[in-house]
Amino acid sequence: MRTIDLRPGPDGHAAPVTDVAFRPDGSRLATASYDGTVLLWDVRDPAAPAPLTRLHHRRLVNAVRWNPVRPDVLATASADKTVAVWRVPENPDDDRPELLTVLARHLDDVNAVAWMPDGERLICVSEDGRATLWNTRTGAFAGEAGAHAAHCMMVSVGPGGLIATVGEDGLVAVTDPDRPGRSAERRCPASVEGCAWSHSGTTLAITRDDGVAELLAPDLTVIRAVTVARTAARAVAWAEDDSMFAVGAYDGCLHVFDADGRRLHQVRDARMWPRSVAVAGDRVAVGSFWNGPHVLDLTTAAPLAEPSAPTHGPNAMAVLDGELLVGCDSGTVVAFDPDADDTATGARVMPVSDSPVLSLTAADGQFYAGTYAGIVHRCNAGGELLAVTDPLGAPVPSLCRTRDLLVAGTYNGALVGLDPAALTETGRGEPHDGSVKSLVPLGDGFASAATDRTVAAGGLYDRTVLWEHGNLVNAVAVLGGRAVATASRDHTVRVGRVRAADGGEGWEVVRGATLLGPDESVKCVALLGDPESPVVLAGSYDFGLYRWRTDEEGAGLRSGRLVDEFRQGVSCMAPLDERRVAVAGWDGQILVVELDPDGEVRVSRRFDLDALAREACRRTWAVAG
What we know:
CATH topology of the largest domain: Methylamine Dehydrogenase, Chain H
Strand content: over 45%
InterPro entries: PQQ_b-propeller_rpt, WD40/YVTN_repeat-like_dom_sf, WD40_PAC1, WD40_repeat_CS, WD40_repeat_dom_sf, WD40_rpt
Organism: Streptomyces thermocarboxydus
Mean pLDDT: 94
Pfam family, one: WD40
Protein name: Repetative protein
Number of domains: 2
Low-confidence stretches: none
WD repeats: 10-44, 54-88, 103-144
C-alpha cells in the first residue's frame, strides 16, 4: 500500500479536515485529514489554536477519538484499513507520541471508532458494514458488535456501554456486548450518516440523508424528529449538559438546536465541511475544507477561531478554448494552456466561489462551476461571473452541457435541468437513488453515474440503465458517442459499446467487458483512440494510473497496466482530444497522457497545480502593486 505524501506545512493540514474531537477536558483538539495525518492542537485559548504534533497514517484519516479514562490516549481510524492507538504526551517538546497498538485486521476503510466506558475496548465500524470490538491493551479482536447491509457510517457508545451503529442501509442498531439480550433495531427511510448518545445516555441523536435529525430513546422509539436541512444531515454532537445539540449538514451549515428541537443558530461559512462536529464546554469545533478547524461559541455561535489558509485539491477539470480549467477545494478555478512552452507564465487563478468547486463543464466560450454550497456559476473565459443559480438544495458533484440544456447532478440524486444562459431551473428529471457523481454528453442527452451503483443514459426524463456495478459508481466517460466506460468502488472498470435502441427509444449495450482494477476504489476513467476498440485509462485511490487495451485478444480477467503514480489518490480526468487526456491527483500533480500510434499511452507533460497557482497569484499581486 502506497503512503500519502502531501507534505503538510507546520501550521495546518494540506487537505480538508475530515473529523474533529476534543479531549474530555477540552484543552486539546485532534483533527483528521485527507492528507493522511492527525494534527493535535492546544486549544486552551480557543481563539488561537496552536498545532502541537502530528500523527501519520498511510491513507486519509476518517476519525479520531480520545480515550475517556486515559486523557493521553487517542484512537485514529483510516482508509488504510487500520486503527492506531497512540499515547500522546502533554508536552510534545519533552516526549514524542508513542504508537501503542495497531488494530489492522479490517477488510475495508474504517469510518469511525468509539471507546467503551472502560477505556480498554474500542468499537470500529467500516465500509464493509461490520462493527467490531477490540481490546486495545492486547490488540486482540474481541468479537462482532453488529453488521449492516451497506457502509457502516458512525458509532457512538453511551455511558452505560450501549453501542449504537448507523449505516447507509438506513439501519440504526443498539447492542450491549456485556448484556447480549439488550438490543434494538430500527429501519429509517433514508441512509443514516451520524449518531451520538447524550451524556446522560437517555437519548440517541441520529442524522439522516434526507436532512432529518431524530432523537430516540434507548429502545429506539422516536422522541422527536427535527428537519435540519434540505440536504443530508451528516454529524451530531451534544452539549455537555444535554441542553443543546449541534448538527453539521451538507448545506454547508452548522445547526444548533435545544433539546426540545427548537433551532437556536444556523451558521453558514463556505469554508466549513460539517461532516464532523465536536463539543467541549461552551465550544463547538467543525471540520473544514481549509487547513484547520473552525471553533465557535456554542451558545452564541460566534466564531472563535478559523483556519488560516485554503487547500487546492483538484476536484474537476474541463477544457475551454485550449485552456485546461481545474476546479479546487479553495473555490478557485486555475486555468492554463497545457501545450504552452512556458505554462506558468500564462496560468491564471479565477476566484469563482467561497465554496469548493466540485464540478466543471465548458461550452460556447464560457464555463460552469458546481459547488459544495449547491450553487452553479456561469463565467466567461476570464472568470467574470455572468449568472448564478438559486441554491439547488445539495452539493453539485457533476455538471453536463447538452445541446440546449445544462444538467446538474446533486448529492441528493437529483438531475436538475437549467437554462444554459440564465441558469434558471427548467425541470427535474428522473432521479438516482444516490449522489450523481458524474455526467457526460451522450447523443442528444447524457450518461450519468451514481452511488446507487447504476449507470444510465438518455434525456432528462426518459433514461435507460445501461449496467450496474457491485458498489457505487464514481465516473462515466464517453468516446465518439458509441463507447462508454465507468469506474467503480467495486475495484472494476466496465466498458461497452452502446447504440440507440430500435425505434429510437432508449439505449442498449451491444458489447461489454469488465476490467479488473487495483484492490481499491477506481475514481475516474477516460477513453482514448478508436470508439470501436478504445484504450481505457483509469485512476485509483491507490494512487495509480492504469490502462487497458480493448483490442487485445483473449477473454477472461484482465488487469490494467500501471502507467504512472501519484502521491495521493487520482482525482479526475478531462479529455483534451481523442488521443490525449489530462489527469489530476489530489497531490496537485496534473499529467497529460497521450496515446501513441502503437496503442500505448505515455505521460508527455507534468504540471504542479500549487506552483502554477502561486505563480499566477504572484503576477497578479505584482500588477496590483
